[in-house]
Amino acid sequence: MTAPVRVALIGSKFIASIHAESVRQCPAAELFAVASPGEGSAAAFAERFHIPHAFTDYRQMLAMPEIDLVIVGVPNFLHCQVTLDALSAGKHVLIEKPLCMNLREADEMIAAAAKAGRKLMYAEELCFAPKYVRLKQLLDSGALGTPTLLKQSEKHDGPHAAHFWDMERAGGGVTMDLGCHAIEFFRWMLGRPRITSVYAQMATQVHGDKTTGDDNALIILEFENGVTALAEESWTKLGGMDDRAEVYGSKGVAYADLLHGNSIETYSATGYDYAVEKAGSTVGWSFTIYEEAWNYGFLQEIAHFVDCVQHDKPPLVTAEDGRAVLEVIFAAYESARTGRKVSLPFSTDAAKPIDLWISPDPKPRP
Amino acid sequence: MTAPVRVALIGSKFIASIHAESVRQCPAAELFAVASPGEGSAAAFAERFHIPHAFTDYRQMLAMPEIDLVIVGVPNFLHCQVTLDALSAGKHVLIEKPLCMNLREADEMIAAAAKAGRKLMYAEELCFAPKYVRLKQLLDSGALGTPTLLKQSEKHDGPHAAHFWDMERAGGGVTMDLGCHAIEFFRWMLGRPRITSVYAQMATQVHGDKTTGDDNALIILEFENGVTALAEESWTKLGGMDDRAEVYGSKGVAYADLLHGNSIETYSATGYDYAVEKAGSTVGWSFTIYEEAWNYGFLQEIAHFVDCVQHDKPPLVTAEDGRAVLEVIFAAYESARTGRKVSLPFSTDAAKPIDLWISPDPKPRP
Amino acid sequence: MTAPVRVALIGSKFIASIHAESVRQCPAAELFAVASPGEGSAAAFAERFHIPHAFTDYRQMLAMPEIDLVIVGVPNFLHCQVTLDALSAGKHVLIEKPLCMNLREADEMIAAAAKAGRKLMYAEELCFAPKYVRLKQLLDSGALGTPTLLKQSEKHDGPHAAHFWDMERAGGGVTMDLGCHAIEFFRWMLGRPRITSVYAQMATQVHGDKTTGDDNALIILEFENGVTALAEESWTKLGGMDDRAEVYGSKGVAYADLLHGNSIETYSATGYDYAVEKAGSTVGWSFTIYEEAWNYGFLQEIAHFVDCVQHDKPPLVTAEDGRAVLEVIFAAYESARTGRKVSLPFSTDAAKPIDLWISPDPKPRP
Amino acid sequence: MTAPVRVALIGSKFIASIHAESVRQCPAAELFAVASPGEGSAAAFAERFHIPHAFTDYRQMLAMPEIDLVIVGVPNFLHCQVTLDALSAGKHVLIEKPLCMNLREADEMIAAAAKAGRKLMYAEELCFAPKYVRLKQLLDSGALGTPTLLKQSEKHDGPHAAHFWDMERAGGGVTMDLGCHAIEFFRWMLGRPRITSVYAQMATQVHGDKTTGDDNALIILEFENGVTALAEESWTKLGGMDDRAEVYGSKGVAYADLLHGNSIETYSATGYDYAVEKAGSTVGWSFTIYEEAWNYGFLQEIAHFVDCVQHDKPPLVTAEDGRAVLEVIFAAYESARTGRKVSLPFSTDAAKPIDLWISPDPKPRP
User: Is this prediction's ipTM beyond 0.90?
Assistant: First the structure.
């Protein structure tokens, strides 16, 4: 029997806890270490998830030869450096979305992985969400005919952590944070044909007091095969996380609702512990989800990469895919500023996507 | 008791039968005459709906002094001339959507109504659809806070009558036919603030053998108050008519599904007479609607205009509104050609909206 | 043109306001008078609905020769006497459900109507609810094959008015109040075949502090044609009124949800005026209904009876139907007491249905 | 690291393939052998699932000392004998539902397990279905208050295999086949309080040509804590498997729909491979499920029992629970015959549940 893959986490916040849980449920993996700079963060996290080793300096952790695979869940502006360090320490890396801040960083990361001979997977969990996997099978089987329009959206009322709102650290608003999911979803669903153009409509409509980033966005892609794709993203949608996809084709149509659709419809006069991510109150009607990590594909994503590492297989989603997504995000901000459809390929020296966008004066909101 | 309003119909096809049924259910109105050029069409229609007078030449019908109100349901390219004739015959006119072929015609119609001192109502039934009326009340009451994004879509698998597919007679494809609903819906829902820009994505994806018009369209509007609106229109969506709206605001969100949402969920091994407009087969699962004309607001629309005529009130939707919608449609085709957001006001001498669009080579569809 | 039917209301509470609104929307009817015993009730009601005549003593009102039709919306124990008075005053009567307190009263009412030569309609609005009307058409058309099981349920968290909770005035609990809807729904849906047996499960589970009546009930009917029907009724279901029906047949199945199914799905952080009858709070998620009276069939019911009176037609639902429903209700309470299926016809001298039931000691509820 | 548990299957039909798939996805288990009497059945099954050993005689298989755990998926009338053989061969046994044909067999099986010192788990997968697990947490947390009514139903259009229709081999109809799920669901959901009474309504409404068993059933249970439970089961419901539960309480209500609710809503003009168990045609609208075994809890059930065996823990559902379910099934058939509520405990010498029921003459069905 093959030895389990030893996994280390960099980061100890929301996404890291999903990763830890996912690793724990993966029989082929062993949760070995965690690093997080905050005073006591790593130690507390290690205790919570029964992880033997905890570090405040991730570089020290990377020096442990027992570690095979590192999962990086840190603010966007650190993605590149941490990944480069992990690769040069000889680790396989799963890097959270979005890949990094800019295209130069992306190229460095790809080159570093090649040089190190290590796997660098881009963590787009929607490609592993079981409902969307079935949706792709429907499309691939011809059940819907030739696709005409794909839609995907992710909406909630805004991230918890401060770094998401700070454009210096995040690089972009909701287009960067949630739009990246839709873009890779479309590429994966269609077999990754070339994207020929991007149009985006963005605005800061509700959270102008907290951020200069976009809090609502619509993004339209055109693919070389004539398919249109529409991403709809929001940081201002109340009532809990919403994640949906639709596929329209010449012979049919399919609607897939990942959370709300699957939920238990609940009315509680008293409220209860938890309905779904960012649900707000659970008093009154709510839509209770279950096995959220499984429904999103987080468990399957981790299990897949562990399997890739263990049996030397190529990951389903690569750093090159992450770079392609990032290119679209840059083009989207360019489009939102100019009010024009932007052709791809799109190259830019911009340090981060948001730099290409100048938000119109936000309206005062009562 | 006030005398009933005498109503005449011009046209005897699909929409005319909805109008006839709506007039019949309006106690304040009397269905008095119908005109339709086809051999025997008017006579058959008159018999079916128990209408006392039938004409092949609508001009003869307009000469009847008993007629108070004319409802025009004819191909788009005839809207202007028929309306002008009816107004100059001293009739009040309810003109079907879209208002007419171009802005010059729109101005003529508005001027003619003013000159004749007769009411010219623009038939946007969605402003009377009871579910959408409630949705507007929710928004107006503040239940959803300040609006950020409005969505509306209408989708089916394409019109029956040939004139819709013929751009000379229709003036545009799905944007002209169904997009007009969404545009007035947005204006009405928001209290008709100024639209500042339009962006449109159009394609002929499935019906390239039948039409040079667009059969799928996405249209993004920006309003002066900072609200974004997204219209999604299709002539290629199978499985029956779909009509939905969503309102997102700073304090809430509301989803309204006019047909599918309200339907009886039916499984029939044998199939049955009718599920919903353009449902295709009713064998297997289908979504059976009921009182379709009421749910769409057709009955209420007719009753409203009859009341306006009877009691000299201004109609809820005017020819000026219809002109504003048409301006957006022109701007949408301009945008679809140029790939740019088009600022409003937009003026053009184009004879019809489609003239501003050059479809990219449609992809061959298997 | 026929003269409008002059309508008087007896009662000024919840159901009377629905009746008043329904009459107001009926062009063939004129809302002429209202009677209610409470100090100022009738006057206030008359002002609210612009009714010319108001009475505290309904007998005085019945003396007005101008009145053609009386709608009775009073506590159950008064149904019989008020109806007899109205009939003997020469009025046509629409009597609210349930018909009356016992079978002797039912027989008296039926005889009185015959003797007076006046129409006595039993107000089961579900037979006019447009969604259920369509459901019946589906079944009648053979789309579902031969029926096997019918279900209907009505659920909310309990009535507002005190007389519903008081068994002396109401005659029964939720089976009497809501079960009567389901029983006539089943009879109507199937073309009124003979019911051969009734089984009922009842309990006082939540409102033992307020009532000795049943607050939850399941009722199973067998029809002579082999169809089973299941009624599910509750006075303890939170989150707003729920009214659903299902029809299962050898060739298909159909699900119809009258309120929740049709609603606008709303999330409001602030709450708003009204979602649906007995919704409780509207903060958070709620299911907003629209045109409630129309969806329930109240408008259509009134319009139908006005038409019956105006054109001397037999009503769709008669006092004989109301008596048949009452017989089933008595049998249901008998069954709930004995734990046995009760065969029909069932005759009893009991003064009211609840007398046949002895509630088991209600469990204390925390 | 603990050695994997070696699993053998008895049976090679529908349920066995679900078990095989579930074992394959369980890292702690190893699929070691399969036995099935049909010519070549076991060999074909073994090849399909890569199982090293195949037998036509399960007794030969039981002689293999390497086998730790046996999963029994055979017709009901063989449950007892096969289980006894497996236990006496020293194997732990997972026995499919229903436990066996009668109470004497149940007692024998329980005694045999005790004597052999081996675990005998009763396979009620609904106790592992993740949506229902979450539903139970909601109830246990107090979110719904004190429960009043529980509902659960499972419906499809009838089993594939002949032995289900043959009362000699099955022991009962839909109450035996699907009712058993609901009964254990209720017990588990409520923490297994005592059931005090059972009432059942059964009929053979559609499949009288194929079976003398009940093809539709309603079953009402009363629990000692005052909760009512309603099971609704059908072998005549078209349009695909349906599995739903509802929990009503004094402080709230929750609706959980296992399949239809979670599905992708699909319209396909061409049809496709598979929507859901017993879906019938996939042309037109259908409700596409994904990861069916996971959603039902089959994977989790197997993983749980493997864990129980590996780490000597008591299973969540035991043979004693299976016996309690069987007692209710007998009482249900007794009730359906007598038209009376039957008190529990209920003892009977009947050889199989159906013996207590005499079906009324089935109506001829067109």
Answer: yes
3-class secondary structure, D110? helix
Q: Where are the beta strands (DSSP E) in D66-213?
A: 69-72, 92-96, 120-123, 147-155, 195-203
* pLDDT averaged per 10 residues, chain B (length 366): 90 95 95 95 96 98 98 98 98 98 98 98 98 98 98 97 97 98 98 98 97 98 98 97 98 97 95 91 94 96 98 98 98 97 97 88 46
Touching partners of A (3+ C-beta pairs < 8 Å): B, C, D
pLDDT, tens only, A179-201: 999 999 999 999 999 999 999 99
Within 10 angstroms of residue C57's Cβ, the number of other Cβ atoms is 12
Chain Cα centroid distance, residue A5:
23
Q: Is the pLDDT of residue A1 over 80?
A: no
Chain C residues near any Cβ of chain D (below 8 Å) = 146, 148-149, 197, 199, 201, 203, 205-206, 216, 218, 220, 222, 225-226, 228, 230, 232, 234, 236-239, 248, 250-253, 339-341, 362-363, 365-366
Q: What proportion of chain C, given as a percentage, has pLDDT over 90? A: 95
Rounded to whole angstroms, how far apart are CA atoms D262 and C265?
18
Write down the pTM of the prediction: 0.96
Q: How many Å apart are CA B188 and CA C169, to the nearest integer?
A: 50
Q: What is the distance, to the nearest Å, from the Cα of residue A222 to the centroid of all Cα atoms in its chain?
A: 21
Nearest CA among B294, B214, B221 for reference residue B259: B294
Distance, CA of C121 to CA of C318 (rounded, Å) = 5
Those residues with Cβ within 8 angstroms of residue D127's Cβ, 6 or more apart along the chain or in another chain: D133, D184, D185, D188, D297, D301, D316, D317
pLDDT at residue D365, rounded to an integer: 43
Question: 3-state secondary structure string, chain B?
Answer: CCCCEEEEEECCCHHHHHHHHHHHCCCCEEEEEEECCCCCHHHHHHHHCCCCEEECCHHHHHCCCCCCEEEECCCHHHHHHHHHHHHHCCCEEEEECCCCCCHHHHHHHHHHHHHHCCCEEEECHHHCCHHHHHHHHHHHCCCCCCEEEEEEEEECCCCCCHHHHCHHHHCCCHHHHHHHHHHHHHHHHCCCCCEEEEEEEEECCCCCCCCCCCCEEEEEEEECCCCEEEEEEECCCCCCCEEEEEEEECCEEEEEECCHHHCEEEEECCCCCCCCCCCCCCCEEEEECCCHHHHHCHHHHHHHHHHHHHHCCCCCCEHHHHHHHHHHHHHHHHHHHHCECEECCCCCCCCCHHHHCCCCCCCCCC
pLDDT (tens digit, 9 = 90+) per residue, D30-67?
999 999 999 899 999 999 999 999 999 999 999 999 99
CB A305 within 8 A of CB A94: yes
Identify any residues that bridge with C72 across adjacent strands, giving them in sequence order: C10, C95
D234/C228 Cβ within 8 A? no
- At C364 the pLDDT is 42
Interface touch B264/C135, C-beta < 8 Å: yes
Neighbours of B315 (CB within 10 A): 21
Determine the distance in angstroms separating the CA of A45 from the nearest CA of chain B, rounded to an integer.
Answer: 35
Strand B69-72 versus strand B92-96 pairing type: parallel
Per-residue pLDDT tens for A221-242?
999 999 999 999 999 999 999 9
Could you read off the pLDDT of B292-337 as tens digits, one per residue? 999 999 999 999 999 999 999 999 999 999 999 999 999 999 999 9
CB D88 within 8 A of CB D301: no
Binary contact (D232, C230; C-beta < 8 A): yes
**Pick among B206, B241, B285 to test the D interface (most D CBs inside 10 A):** B285
Q: Give the mean pLDDT of C245-259.
A: 97
Phi-psi region of D139 (alpha: psi -120 to 50; beta: other; left: phi over 0): alpha
